[in-house]
Amino acid sequence: MMDELELLKRDWQKREEQLPRLSYGDIYQMLWKKSSSIVKWILIISLLEFALPHLLYLIPGVSESFETYEKLGIKRVSTLIWIGSYLVTFYFIYQFYKRYREISTLDDAKKLMQKIIRTRRTVKHYVIFSLSMLFLTCIVIMIGIYFNDNLMAAFPAASDAKRNMSPEKFKSLMLMVMGVCSVGMIVLMGAVYFLLYGLLLKKLKRNYKELERLEV
Amino acid sequence: MNKELEHQFVTELESNQNIVHKVCTLYTSNREAHNDLFQEITIQLWKAYPKFRGESKFSTWMYRVALNTAITLYRKSKRSVQTQDYESVIFKIKADEYDATEEEQLQLMYKAIRQLGDIDKALVFLFLENKSYSEISETLGISEVNARVKMNRVKTKLRTILNP
């Protein structure tokens, strides 16, 4: 038996000549295939981002805000906005998935470069879309407040403020609060997007630059 | 700095690429899977490269990372890929073995090795690479005694497969 294993060992070492041989350039390019893992992260983050707010609804108290929407008379509009944005978000997630599949199976640097550009564009569109949806929702809420005649009933929590205030004053105060909150939220989300996707996009861009240099 | 590191890495990998190819040969069965594994190992090596400070030889370090990557991937795919029953393999090889020429016998042995578990395979691989027990223990992160014991077990296993 030992002889057989020694025989095998000799044969194994002889086989070394038949092994494939990659060039410096081949190996170098492999390093830049990292792009696929970056796109994978974009996909994961977009999925998480999509799923996390739904977990929030499980917390009691958050679901109460739906009642507020109803009292403001904007329930239908906001439901429509939500359905619309769900559909579009699904579309984007599908796009990210497609990019990920494409990028992880590519061998050719030139094609990879094209896909990187496309991915970057898709992510930018996604961020713009998400922020404008947020903006739109805020506007709709503000319009709801503006046209509501019985504002006090819609915000039972603000009972202390109500007593010392005329309805008009309360309305303008609510509008102001809402306006400030909207701007704050959009800025905050913008910052989060900038950090999350911005970093990933920067990495992708770096890969792109490297590939570009490699191609020349 | 980064460019320099990259150049250094690719150069070293290029001259030591046989190691990775051999791991790929042992852990995969077709060309496509071979290339995928090669790429995965390359990426893992590159990720780990900044932490490699020349405490061991570049090639020893490569053996370790390459085998770890192969073993990890092998474990992942094990669930989805249908594995052949160990007993049936033994039986088949026993039946086939009778008047095997040397070349055929070698093929049978490679086949038997392919059917081994991921760790056993790594051991056989390092044995085929003519590594000493101390190198094997360093590469696989086990004690030398453990390496010897495990190796003997694998050899016995192969023996039972090949010598009915």
Helix count from the secondary structure assignment of chain B: 9
Largest sheet properties of chain B: none
Q: What integer value in Å does the Rg of chain A equal?
A: 27 Å
Percent helix of chain B, as a range, is over 70%
Fraction in beta strands of chain B: under 5%
Q: The biggest beta sheet of chain A, please?
A: none
Mean pLDDT of chain B: 78
Mean pLDDT of chain A: 75
From the structure above, extract its key features:
heterodimer; A: about 220 residues; mainly alpha; about 0% strand; B: about 160 residues; Rna Polymerase Sigma Factor, Chain: A; Arc Repressor Mutant, subunit A; 2 domains; about 75% helix; globular
Describe the protein.
The complex is a heterodimer of chains A (216) and B (164). Chain A is built from 9 helices and no strands. By secondary structure, chain A is mostly helical. Chain A starts with a helix and ends with a helix. The mean pLDDT of chain A is 75. The radius of gyration of chain B is 17 Å and the shape is globular. Chain B starts with a helix and ends with a helix. Residues 78-99 of chain B have low confidence and may be disordered. The interface between A and B is medium-sized, with 23 and 30 residues.
Strand and helix layout:
The complex is a heterodimer of chains A (216) and B (164).
Chain A (H helix, E strand, L loop, with lengths): L1 H13 L9 H8 L3 H22 L7 H9 L2 H31 L3 H39 L3 H4 L4 H5 L3 H49 L1
Helix pairs in contact in A: 3-5, 3-9, 5-6, 6-9
Chain B lengths: L1 H14 L1 H11 L3 H18 L9 H21 L7 H11 L5 H13 L3 H11 L4 H8 L3 H19 L2
Helix pairs in contact in B: 2-3, 2-4, 2-7, 3-4, 4-8, 7-9, 8-9
What's the gist of this structure?
By secondary structure, chain A is mainly alpha-helical. Helix content of chain A is 83%, strand content 0%. Chain A is built from nine helices and no strands.
